[in-house]
Sequence to fold (924 residues):
Amino acid sequence: MNESGEVVDTQTEMKPEAPAEKPTEPVSGPRLVVRPRRGSETGTQREAVFDVKDLAVWYGDFRAVRDISLQIYRSQITALIGPSGCGKTTVLRCFNRMNELIPDARVEGAVLYHGVDLYGSAVDPVEVRRRIGMVFQKPNPFPKSIYENVAFGPRVAGRRGKLDDVVEESLRKAALWDEVNDKLEDSAMALSGGQQQRLCIARAIAVEPDVILMDEPCSSLDPIATLRIEELMQELASEYTIVIVTHNMQQAARVSDRTAFLTVDVRQDGQRTGTLVEYDDTEKIFTYPSDPRTEAYVTGRFG
Amino acid sequence: MSAQAISREHGLAAQLSGDPRRRRREALVRQAFLSAATVSLLISALIIFSLIGRTIGFLTQVDLSSLWSIGWFPRRGFFDIKTIVVGTFLVSAIALMVAAPIGLGAAIYLSEYASPRARRLLKPILETLAGIPSVVMGYFALNFISPEIVQRLSSRASLFNVACAGIGVGILVVPLVASVAEDAMHAVPGSIREAAYGLGAKKMTTSIRVVVPAAVSGIVAALILGISRAIGETMVVAIAAGATGGHLFTVDVFGPAQTMTGAMSSLATGSDQVRGATGAYPSLFFVGFLLFVMTFGLNVVSERFVRRVRKRY
Amino acid sequence: MSVTQLSTADVVRQALRGKRLDLRGTIFQLALLLTLIVSLGVLAALLVQVIGDGWVVFRDRGVDFLTSPLSASAKRAGIQQGLIGSVILMIFVILLAFPIGIGAAIYLEEYAKDNTMTRFMTANIRNLAGVPSIVYGLLGLAIFVLVLKPLTGGLSAFSGGLTLAVLVLPIVIITSMEAIRAVPQSIREAAYGVGATKWQVVRHHVLPYASSGILTGTVLSIARALGETAPLILVGAITGVFFQSSGNPIDRLQGPYTSLPTVVFSWTRLPAAEFRHLAAAAIMVLLVVILAINATAILLRNRYERKW
Fold:
């Protein structure tokens, strides 16, 4: 019940390589289902898609996050978790330069994408976003037809002519094709919430990105729709690198390979800045977290 | 890093720098829109430039004592400012006496009393009023307001008089006052009204003693804008207030008088055209400059009041 | 001593009943309603006056009134030149004010950073919207008639058209800006998110979404421009009689012209009673056209408003 990667009961299993410097008891708390990862290599042996070094983000005079350093690895699902206000979304939006849409936003530090500085002067944010796609918290399909929604990305990237094949493939990958293939010309706004979000995923996939960023993609969906999207994420992870922000710990534990825990650091003057507390394999974060703050969060004592 | 990785990185960096043709196109588009926006700055500059230049020309070329004389007779060299300013003031004062109660009353009714259905029925009335061209109101002022109303009020009133022009201008200004005042009252949060009702206040009390004071900045702004619009109104005055050539200084609202805008239109349509006699033609710009300064000042002041409403809520 | 004791319930019941009829309040409400009734009354009186004075012209002359040029004789005068002039002026407004106005709005809402310069530009536009229309006539006179005489031909339709376009421009910009501002930010984010450039976002998403608002604003500004007289008088609109200069369109544009409201103005001023009837008839035509334009604006808004 373990090597092939099925349900592992955290309370009865003791991992052999428990860190020596910490008490070797798994943390007690709500039962968490942790899935061991695909393949045998641990996360850090893969290629790093993103290398973040000392990232800080300012909105005017307000420093939203600081001292963020981590790597995101290829074909994995990396989760950013933490209490509200800790800057998870801010960090996520740094990966595709979406923070630039906010006036007065400033990024310090480096975000390297396959070794290239994303914020370099020669880098075109448009190209960045064609490689690093995003799915938003509240589904935001365009007020156009389903077909047009998916076709928009490839069109602006320069593809001409009929895009039927791209549209179909993207909708299939997003597990939406069967439900909409007979009404592609209908308005996207007529779909249900879960369907709209899958449409947004199809839209993001259509430009053939390298990475898909997801900002709390299920937070406005019902549990069934949520589950479908989580399944979809697992399927997509083989082809895309996925970074997801979620406030749902269980979701992070279910879905992700590695997890980063951020928290809010309140200074004397009251400024609340987000910082990275711990970043490790998901299993470890949820069973043997190194930092007491992480432990407090994942066991539900706060947040 | 391996040589392979380095070259891959270079390839990526090149890709990430994007298509220079696309970047040029985006820059061109941005430039085009920016040019459109700067046209507005150009217009302001031209207005100020054309007014100031000729005003200075007028003031230097004309005998300054004529600016304080018996009346406004441009073609004879009398440019008494107080004649036209007082004339404007009289028309605007009457206009405000008409527009303020009607406009504010309509605003209070629409904001506090009217049901959504009533609003849908009544707002179009104000919108239609707003769409009436001023020449039409001028016609109405001369052919209806003057004989039916003003001349009934005062037997010695002439056909062309300040009062009917003032009333006509007032009617034109009503929609402006009503809409700005209504916006201000609408912006008062419902919680304030509920607090008043919760204390047992009736609707009239709430409206007069709670909502109106809360919206007072916006109401003042509405009235100031109304004055500004009234001052700038030309055709009603040109048609109904008489005084084609020139006029003596007067404060008689039941007789004809000259206003700033009326003086300008007279100069333009007078027998010796706009190119005409020396002094007469540049005085057009002089009056225009005065008018511009007055309305600009009033608009700026009313903006301050509107901003105070916005800041509050 | 026995006193009739009221129970607490009775006391409360009496207090809550209060006065059935709130006299002051009702009077107040009626007084307010009266203001709107007065407005309606004014409109009605206006229509009655105008139609009463003007219908005879249509009864006696019918369409001839629309097709006759200006004349010193009231029996022959018609509004043909006024109609043609107004149409030409509106074409100028549409060709000049709309693209420039919408373009400026796009720049200020989508491209410009939120700094002092942008705020100054926006404030400047709002001030321009409040400038009396006759001052635009002065601008037209000084610049279009005098300085640009070689191009415009001086006191000409060209100058008049440019003047009206400049007058209407701030309104077009303001209404377009409002329409663009109403586009939800989530749509822009979604479009940027798949790698669209700013112009692609504007062209494929912002403008289509804002199109109904922009269209309504522009159509209403035509209605406004149609009724303007004061600026045109300063820029050469003829208030007397004139003969349309013949020849190629350029000559005609550089020659004398008038507009429908200017014709109304000149006829209203004439003392003879026949001209009063003519003025009223012309007003009827003007009002019908303006009403039609306003109705079109509302229809367009309802039709295009967010079909999705």
